[in-house]
Design brief:
Number of helices: 14
Strand order of the largest sheet: 1-7-6-5-4-2-3
Order of helices and strands: HHHEHEHEHEHEHEEHHEHEHEEHEH
Helix content: 40-55%
CATH topology of the largest domain: Aspartate Aminotransferase, domain 2
CATH architecture of the largest domain: 3-Layer(aba) Sandwich
Number of strands: 12
Bound molecules: pyridoxal-5'-phosphate
Structural class: alpha/beta
CATH class of the largest domain: Alpha Beta
Radius of gyration: 22 Å
Number of domains: 2
Largest sheet: 7 strands, mixed
Length: 402
Amino acid sequence: MDGTIQRKKAAPDIKSWKPQTRAVRGGLRRSSFDETSEALFLTSGYAYNSAEEAEATFKGESAHFQYSRFGNPTVAMFQDRLAALEGAEACIATATGMSAVFYALLALLKAGDRIVAARQLFGSCHYIINELLPRYGIKGEFVDGGDLGQWEKALSTPANAVLFESPSNPMLDIVDVKAVCDLAHKAGAKVVLDNAFATPILQRPLELGADVVVHSATKYIDGQGRALGGAILGSRDFIIGKLQPVTRNTGPSISPFNAWLFVKGLETLGLRIDRHCASARKVADALAANPKIGRVLYPGRPDHPQHALAARQMSNFGGVVTFDIKGGKPATFEALNRLQLVDISNNLGDAKSMVTHPATTTHMRIGAEERAKLGIGDGTVRISVGLEDVDDIITDLTQALG
Ligand SMILES: *Cc1c(COP(=O)(O)O)cnc(C)c1O
């Protein structure tokens, strides 16, 4: 899994590097060709120099790569670079963000166990907790992620896992990571935090007490809307000891090509996130000043209910803004259909700005009652603010609102 290619120079001291240096050079493995850019190893298998080397590899006594379901040099570079950024001991990359969430839970839970989750979760997580896990005898319970009292009550009963996002999709609720981790650990639970919205540039959950971090690399880590992928990070004990046997034998492996896009994506993640944050702040302020707009939710604005908490646990506030257009669904659809630059798409974290109407797309299946609990109305719109000139984004939104 950590097979080394040929290396002539002494291994660098990654721990002494600041995040931006880790993002550019962490996990770098150069082949005997001494290429400067990370190589794409589009191979499923590896040849051994001798029968003895094959035997040693299968015994776990050699760092030689074995099979790309188990490990691949390009995938290893992505895993090690992301681990260096998150401050994690180990990382396993997966085919999608959802396989990262699911496999993290699968490795933690067994029949008879209990999971407590914030209801402010990515749509498919509701299916996993409400429908899939119960088939295997695992009980789930939802709380409002922003309400510590509800966490306290749910975690007064022993639990095995806790799952939440912060900031959440699409309402940008903030969970008090430290406080919930303390409650979870007292209840005997491991905490899995989906860090897709913040990325390790803005928030490092392991430092705040989380046990496992999951990512949809599809979003900001790629950042250009090209490929699906995910990652699970945590202690060596959990990732290598518990998770690796599960993933190796069941195969949610990432394509080396996608891992190559992501390892290069990490190099510019910090620069892109800086711009996403600066532009999102300007878009949020412009929307808040528009008479056609009801409430604006952006954790960076002082009127966000959890602004102080967000400022405590994040270094900046991200690229997503959620807002309500007055006049319900008809007025909202009219405005979306008038957009000329910003795309209508359920994706996010792209260089291109995108809006989605959660009630009729990403959050349609959870039903009106659950949407009401989350605060998703018929006029609620989420914008993922891209890397275009922010003046052009604001001009387009303003003309669309009429
Ligand atoms: C998109 C997303 C996921 C799912 O990731 P995929 O790569 O689409 O499988 C999970 N969590 C969050 C917060 C997301 O935004």
